Amino acid sequence: MPASAQGDAADPGRPGLAPGPEASRCFDFEVDFVAGWRCIPLCLRRKLDLAGIKLKLGHWIELSRSERQELVDWPDDAAALNAMALHLRERSTGMANGRVKDLPVATGEPWSGGVLPDAVQQGAVACGQPISPAQWTALSELERFALCKLARPGHDHHNLPRALAEFLD
Asked: Across-strand partners of 54?
């Protein structure tokens, strides 16, 4: 993280500098690709959505392992997300895939609310593990984000059963 946004992340008395407990959480079902950071973990995908940035896998691969870890560990408060977006715009300039793209900042997304999205329920039912409204609201925002991403139409749903088992068992 750039010095202007990093501060002293080891100092818990300074709010907004260290990630929240979910900001850098990688799930057990991601273990196959998280160990080498060969894919973008869902905790970072959430931050990218909240920052309004489209980071392609090609961008991710072009970053060093330490840069990838830095992004995973990046805090997720609003100021930090703005700093991350600026950092990624600057860092990706000159990359093979070009500069990262700006997207609308995620607001009012199904994963941020208390209503279980139909696509998630349909995916859960297809996996033999329907979700109750109480179970949905008991999930963390990051877990709801993951289920929404894994259950979206056109997505390879092979990790959905593993995610459901991890979150609901």
From this structure: 101
Query: Based on the domain organization, do 82 and 147 belong to the same domain?
Result: no
Q: Which residues are CB-contacts of 3 (< 8 A; sequence separation ≥ 6)?
A: none
Residue identified by tokens 């990706």 is 92
Q: What is the pLDDT of residues 74-127, one digit of tens each?
A: 999 999 999 999 999 999 999 999 999 999 999 999 998 889 999 999 999 999
The structure tokens listed for 32 are 């196959």
pTM for the model stands at 0.84
Based on the domain organization, do 69 and 125 belong to the same domain?
no
Containing structural domain, residue 161: 116-166
Please, are residues 27 and 9 in contact by the beta-carbon 8 Å criterion? no
